[in-house]
Fold this sequence. Notes:
Elements: H1 2-21, H2 27-36, H3 39-45, H4 56-82, H5 85-88, H6 95-106, H7 113-128, H8 140-147, H9 149-173, H10 177-201, H11 209-233, H12 238-245, H13 248-260, H14 265-283
Helix pairs in contact: 1-11, 1-12, 1-13, 2-4, 2-10, 2-11, 3-10, 4-9, 4-10, 6-9, 7-14, 10-11, 12-14, 13-14
Amino acid sequence: xxxxxxxxxxxxTSDALTKRALAEGDEYLVAWFRLLFALPVLLILxxxxxxxxxxxxxxxxxxxxxxxxxxxLVLYIKxxxxxxxxxxxxxxxxxxxxxxxFSYFILGEKVSVRGGIGIILLATGGYILNLHEMRNSIxxxxxxxxxxxxxxxxxxxxxxxxxxxxxxxMAIEHSSPLFFGATYFIVLTxxxxxxxxxxxxxxxxxxxxxxxxxxxxxxxxxxxxxxTHMLALGLTNVAYxxxxxxxxxxxxxxxxxxxxxEKYLRERLAGAALMLTGFVMIVTA
Length: 285
């Protein structure tokens, strides 16, 4: 439980610091450096993780996940840059909704009544995030989601994570959580490097010495998130661990209010809390 809470805090802090770094940096380079500064920790960890027997399914799931993960990474960082944290991060809780459908087709898993209630709570929470829009019409809060580009991008990220989570679960079943987690992030960092450097060099705000310092701390907290995530997976039920980790959504809303002056704290906390509750009901169903 404590490791999962540390994981949630590290992720929310990394996201907030990443948003701050994005004020002066290119999103491709910021995304890559967040991974890059976490790489030394992963390279050290890999020597202490037992190497399991893997098969063709592991490699296929691993390979299919990586390009989708890169797309999701870019969209995630873009969403953080262009929209408030309180209107982007909560939509990550939609991942299990998409996961329900992909799990059915990829893994043959079906949704329960409890999971269905969770979906309703997620939709309600998404509505409450923009409750102040209801003065125009009852449907305005939903229309506001479509107008907020960062929210739309994060919904797409949640959709992609629904696919990669199913593929990741398959890879874990044919290896181990620690081995998959460490190798996956290492390969992701290596593959994303050339993309970030090519895309970033074409932008005016190329990373300078001052920005390296700004990018170090998002990477540092991201590495803490990865390590605590992998350690927690080995100590507790995966569904409960992920549920506690997603309290980062609530922390992100609070960071948005105090660090970036984002408005409507109460309704966005309420919406994020409902979405988190729905998330928990789905993953623990």
